[in-house]
Specification:
With 442 residues, this protein is an alpha+beta fold. It contains 16 helices and twelve strands.
Amino acid sequence: MVEGALAVENLAVLHRRLRPHFRRLEPFEQGGKYVTALVSDLPRKNGWTIAEHAGDACPDPTQRLLNHAVWDHDAAMATIRGFVVEALRGQPLVVAALDESGQEKNGAATAGVPRQYMGCAGRVANGVNTVYCSYATPGGHALVGARIYVPADQLADPDRRAALGIGQETGFRSKPQLAVDILRDMVTDATMPGWCAGDEVYGRSTELRSFCEDNGIGYVLRVGRAFHADLAAGVRLRADAVVDTVLSTQDSWQVRAVPGSKGDRRYAWAWVATASPHHFLLLRKHLQTGEVAYHYCHVPPGRQVPLTTLVRVACLRWPVEEDFEFGKDHFGLDHSQVRLYTALARHLVLSMAALAVCAVTAAQAKTRAPAPILPSSADENPPKDAGLIAFTVAEIKRLFILITRRPHTDAHHLHWTWWRRRHQARARWFHHRTRLARQATT
């Protein structure tokens, strides 16, 4: 239970650091209860369930925290980022991994909701997309930055902007521009690592690449097969044409093992010099299917890096997907039922705090974990005891719950049974009245 107690201590430390961002004590304490509920075993984490878990008599304090209380969620995000960086800094390689993830929403009354492609649904649907940054290291990772994508039509209509709670300071920003905003914040507070990675959405952005280069940040960014590069030989080629010409022989590729949770994954890699001494094309080929992925790389002046370093940077983009999975499955990252822009942003920040606590604790526990016992050949018999894997984020969460579980009295739960039924009856009454009004006008 040492790690469970450490998670409780880490939450207390992070919560204390957030105090300067709250004007009054009551919202600050409510924020602590909110994060604790996010780390709990509640199957759905929304205003009602969080309020009941926190011991409140109704959802009003929770809704006030998200919608009306005076606190600076942007500054709180910076504090969470500092907490993560402080714990994970010192790793042999650190990457700011960029990606977006979404939350499906019905209707069009929520800030940031148009019909758009939602990766979480695998189709075009109503939902909110958010650009995230993960602070990714071989020893652990967590989300440290987030910006909600708001479509231009919501911002162009003053009445709709006001109804969705979007302030005048929020202007339209594309997803790569939102990523630049996150990286700029990290440069400002000195938490930006030396490398950045991202998929094609970010790799094709000249603005993002220029920002990284201007600030001495190396990058390994995915690009499409139609991406053009000026090679050192003075030839301008599409990325896929490089495979057929420059890399046409097997000797051009080098097989590298990429660490994975179930063992090393092996790919063939190749890099090609460009007309710039600081830019390269990095290509990854699947050994079974032959499918090729393309990356455009920048190595800042003064750095000398081998192929292996670029490969490791490219692969440290993947942990952000794991952060999405952990955030949504375990900490309610996509469970909010709020509609206003500020409330959405605040829920994201508090969910990131919950993830950060467990991710940092898991990373700290990993440093004390024994080396894994692994087979040395394909025909080796299993040992009598294969040992234990290092603590995962999900396991740290379970230990946190064991230590902090404080069941409320039966009277509290009975009160909430009454409150829900009363609230739903009132909602039913208004729904019926609205239907009668519609019938009267037809």
